[in-house]
Design goal:
Transmembrane segments: 7-27
Number of strands: 19
CATH topology: TIM Barrel
GO biological process, one term: allantoin catabolic process
CATH class: Alpha Beta
Domain Amidohydrolase-related: 92-481
Structural class: alpha/beta
Family: Belongs to the metallo-dependent hydrolases superfamily. Allantoinase family.
Largest sheet: 9 strands, mixed
GO molecular function: allantoinase activity; cobalt ion binding; zinc ion binding
Bound molecules: allantoate ion, zinc ion
Helix content: 25-40%
Distance between the termini: 65 Å
CATH superfamily: Metal-dependent hydrolases
Amino acid sequence: MEFQKRSFFSLLPVIASILLFFLKFSLKTAPSGCSLLHHNHYWISSKRIVTQDGVISGAVEIKDGKVFSLVKEEDWHGYIRKGQIVDFGEAVVMPGLIDVHAHLDDPGREEWEGFPSGTRAAAAGGITTLIDMPLNSEPSTVSEETLKLKINASKNRIFVDVGFWGGLVPDNALNATALERFLRAGVLGLKSFMCPSGINDFPMTNITHIKEGLSVLAKFKRPLLVHAEVQLDIADKSVKDDNKDARLYSTYLETRPPSMEEAAIRDLLTVSENTRVGGPAEGAHLHIVHLSDAQSSLNLLKNAKARGDSISIETCPHYLSFSADEIPDGDTRFKCAPPIRDAENKEKLWEALRGGDIDMLSSDHSPALPDLKLLQQGDFLKAWGGISSLQYVLPATWTSGRKYGVTFEQWSEKPAKLAGLPLKGSIAVGNYADIVAWEPETDFDLDQNHPSYFKHPSISAYMGRKLSGKVLATFVRGNLVYKEGKHAPAACGNRLLAT
Ligand SMILES: NC(=O)NC(NC(N)=O)C(=O)[O-]
Ligand SMILES: [Zn+2]
Ligand SMILES: [Zn+2]
């Protein structure tokens, strides 16, 4: 008895250190519900890991939400602990997509989309960060106060990381103090429209507003994103005068010709030279959202970039996947602005993306209540514009782009740079472990039986298509937030505010 007692006491330090080890381990595991995985330190392995130095076969070591090391297969023997490997075999492991253009419409129009459904759709589609547009929420994000509403509305309701663009509107554009307060409150940059946005509290800006906005943005080194179309009365008038059939896509196309984009861009180029090194708005940057016209507009922008203007360009999967002649009569799911143009234009967009003249991709996911799309009536002139696509942008881009080549720079690295997120956009040591694993070779039918996480699958232009590229799993800062149809129960996305 005496002996047993003594041996118990002599074992105390051992028991204590075992207890301490488990306590430390449990403290280090992810907070409950944020991840479908219970490790805080683990490896993601695959035969195809996309890194900055090319594709490797090996593993990504993840610790405390960040990439701790990259291990090539030939070096990993004895290095990796068994039981802490998430193996994706032949699937591609690459940086999560960063979508710099999504309308989540929250607060105020949650019935259109909302933070919970939108960020779950993002996770299911391999998007690990998205930047929310300042319009279609109610109110629009156009001031420090309205940004606070966004920040509050997103609390514990986002499943991926979310940042916010702020609106540049006539009300704040000529008021540098208000704009500075707005930028100090954390918007990652500003966004403005050069034509009516369709949203009452988001009026369009003229070139003077834009010039003033750029000079304030220069101090903060943040970008201005512009919807570059200006209204040309001639186009609208010819359609109305001739009483054209509003169920034909060609009728809608006539109301928004490439010359609307071109005129806006000509206007913008009169102030973008200010962003050059040594210019009065050096530090500011102009980003053209959803470029559709791959001819004159693109050429003008190319030349301005070559002259040293700080400009970048995005286009979206719908301009790269569809062409005007394929859009069925009355199918208003395809209505967006600027419009989807002809097949030759689509080829030119791909060429420009491949050649680097177009810098990046974004979804411009912009859903609305199905009623507003007037699907029964099929009236392209009256229906609400905007393509619903968030969850399917990776397979959609891949399906049409595999023959041209799509790179992770376009979906992750360059978007991260635009949004000012230095620890995102690539799988590199020290970066956040924002990762998607997907199977490029797997095809699926996007029909009613396919699980969709955004609110209104019926209005998605991709519904009814066969797509290639199946997302298996999505990790946000090391948390496994999505795996094969299952989401992590807790919404642990971070709100990304500029400092
Ligand atoms: N109010 C909107 O959501 N507009 C959006 N609509 C589109 N692209 O058709 C946009 O980005 O311009
Ligand atoms: Zn737009
Ligand atoms: Zn948009």
